[in-house]
Give the backbone structure.
Amino acid sequence: MSKSKSVVTEICNRYGNTRVRLMDIVRDVQQELGHVPREAFDLIAKGAHTHRVEVESVISFYAFLSERKKGDVVIRLCDDIIDRYQGGEAVAEALTRALGIGFNETTSDGRVTLEKTPSIGMSDQAPAMMVNDVMVTRLTPELIPGLVAKLRQTNDPQSLVESYGDGNNAHALIRSMVCNNIRESGAVILADYKRERGLRKALTETPADVIADVKASGLRGRGGAGFLTGLKWELTRESPGAEKFVLCNADEGEPGTFKDRVLLTERADLMIEGMTIAGYATGAETGIIYLRGEYAYLRPYLEDVLNRRRAGKLLGNGILGNAEFHFDVRIQMGAGAYICGEETSLISSCEGTRGDPSDRTPFPVAKGYLVSPTAVNNVETYCCAARIMDQGAGWFAAIGTQRSTGTKLLSVCGDCARPGIYEVPFGTTLREVLRRAGAENTAAVQVGGPSGQMVGPAQFDQGISYEELATGGSMMVFSNDRDILEIVEAFMEFFVKESCGYCVPCRVGNVLLKSRIERIRQGDGAPADLAYLKKLGESVKRMSRCGLGQTSPNPILTSLKNFQPVYNALVREDKTGLQKSFHIMRAVEEASVIAGRRSEVFHA
Amino acid sequence: MNKSIHLTIDGKPVEAKHGQTIMQAADAAGIYIPRLCSHPDLRPIGSCRVCTVIVDGRPQAACVKPAMDGMVIENDTPELLQHRRNIIDMMFVEGNHFCMFCEKSGNCELQAMAYRFGITAPQYPFQFPEKAVDASHPDIMLDHNRCIMCARCVRASQELDGKNVFQAIGRGFHRKIGVDGEKALADTDMAVGDRSADVCPVGCIIKKRIGFRTAIGRRLYDRQPIGSDIEANATP
Amino acid sequence: MSKPRVATTSLAGCFGCHMSLLDIDERILSLIERVDFDRSPIDDIKHISQRCAIGLIEGGCCNEENVRVLYEFRKNCDLLISVGDCATMGGIPALRNNIPLQECIDEAYRTGVTVYNPDDITPQDPEIPLLLNRVYPCHEVVKIDYFLPGCPPSADTLWAALTALLSGQPLELPYELLKYD
């Protein structure tokens, strides 16, 4: 304990002993000790000037933090439906066989812990896993024994990376096997551009004019919600507050999306340029990039980009010789919580607490990070903003549709020949996207991830846009040999695991929804169960507190609407009055084994 | 700034003061909006969602949403009553609510809410989750089987007692109330006189040795539905 | 015209709900004038003899015998009513739902503090119905038409419910008669 004692004390000091940096403190303790032991709670609480139960509250919230001791190496296999359909189950089996342990277990020598985790942003190269912070993609069961042997031999996850991916994935500070899979570049984000020209132009204008430009471009939030970016900046600027903040949402957790991964790898400068412009426009001097824990492998590179920009007078005091303008950026690491992509949860997490969302009156633009006016935007939104300042609002507004201007990055994955990143103008039809991605015999597309909608061929001629098929980027393609309800159940399982539990409808409703889908899949459903799903789903949607619960019933509600025959084929009317979901033989099975006799009343 | 606020609730004109929430304005006008996590002495947090009303077409928790001029609010509609009922049902099946031997029965706000809604049985399957009972404290019992995660105790301890005895731990369906001590409530600085021992709407935080003192028939909600006191303020 | 028939049973219950039914006192005379009792512990008829209008179920299902009886009631009654908290939500017996079955059986027959069992025998007579893996509220086993919660529901509640149903009225309990304790 004395060693861990000094480690904890040193870490608390490292972050200035402040409560606001509790996330960083417990993350570092986890990293150094392999867990955050209960015995350390009091010490951390003291070191961060908070209460023991607050420390426990934070640790128990995030999937990557644990009070239980884990192995030196933690293998987290992505358990997304996309990974499962690309052979993830066989990989899972191979892992348990090679390691001799089950999931959520640690090898007896204490070296390796095996876990499952939701989407890690590698759906275009699934199945994939994280080995500590190292991404290992395109797994097959055949590869596993070699990988495990290598890991046993070296104890170094990086040794599993034999060749590097394209572009910056091969950068000395990334050294990852991840591939960008950029299939199509568009005019805005992935086009060649002149660095810092947007920022230079912005600094020649007044902040109000910058905001006017962004407003005129029609730019809307790329995370999916589609709020007008210029308006958000204006509200942040106009809200009273001594300090203002610009936050970048790089907590790309929506299953099936990975476009921010590629932007962080290939367009980090453009993104930070956009943040800097936002800082100038809103009057903020501090920016925070909230980076999801899964993308920790990009952190050293991003820190280096920040340092380079500081050295180049692109961050820090007096940016580009403008004596009045100071702006700097820090990275806040997440620790495995989908909810933190919700902007108020993201703010809570940046403030070092559990990622519970907060009420959106007041909105973050008025009272956000540290109760100050805060603009939270998506990675892609900042990239767009920088390009708008460079090329002009009119140029941007001319691309796309009237109400959805510019281009959109799509993360296409699943059953298609060319999964990867497609930058397309808004208004491009889904059918066209599927054609380009080489998707054949497509039965369903999950547009916008689990929180979006499941559409069938009848919707394929709709366009990708805020007014028709809205998406934060995730496009999961399922061919007609997939089981629609298996997909729906997997999405509901995801929401059950990721609900923060703050409000009742989301905490309980999703559990109930999922178990009713299970019942129907088992053939125990009746037509009344479809009405049950609809009514319960509507209640969760209408009554939940934040975006997670307000969208979590979507897999069920949209598949009920667009794939009704699938449900109808599974449910049967029953006139006996007996509940099909009650199975007497299953109910007596345990007692039958204990008693060593069969049921005299009901033998099969 | 001192101009008063005019809004309507189910078509009835209501006047509100600046700084009031929709719920406070409704209470003053004798309109009861059902609620569980809300408590008059505590900062509202909108966790139970029972008080959700429709404000200009959008669902909002009345306990946290400030009243604003011109708001058109729906409260007593068949749609909302159904959603609220569904939420109350959810609370019954997510915990282990054995009213027949609970000390809080008759004075329990969750039970009273179900009575008010005329619920004879929840529509959802009981989950029978495994939950702990913490009887370590000499004067107070903490029975997690009955907790509805309203966080009144968390707020009361911080806001009224100047302590920090409770906080949420875990997430999702496994979220629960944790205590600021090594293992159990006895390891905290909780005292029986704390307000946090008084505010629990259900039988989760119970003072020992005082249960069942009030005769059946004389308990808070034996004869009058919850909210009757507020509705008594209504002007015709 | 023959009188409507009423059947009653107690599954995993304590007969408290039946005692409450007897608590309607002299009103039982007018009840007898309006209905005939079929299978019921009150008259000791062992099986339902003909179609019944109303079946009153006390108790949830803790063993296979409970399920068999409940099936018989569902097949032979027009309306089935869960009477009391045990039928409605499992009640006190459902406290075992988080305890492993083996532990429950051992506690009952071998390790309980009041158990005297020098030969350490767990009875295994085939006559003893097998326990279910957990206690089920009745509506998880068969469709239930109405619920009368309470431990037990008061005599007035039972009376109000029966008189409403027998006169074809919808079952709407006044506030004072809907109680969970």
Summary: The first helix of chain A runs from residue 2 to 14. Residues 343 and 376 of chain A are 7 Å apart (CA to CA). Chain A is about 40% helix and 10% strand. Chain A touches chain B at residues 51-54, 56-57, 60-61, 337, 339, 354, 356, 359, 361, 496-505, 507-509, 511-512, 515, 532, 535-536, 538-539, 542-545 (CB under 8 Å).
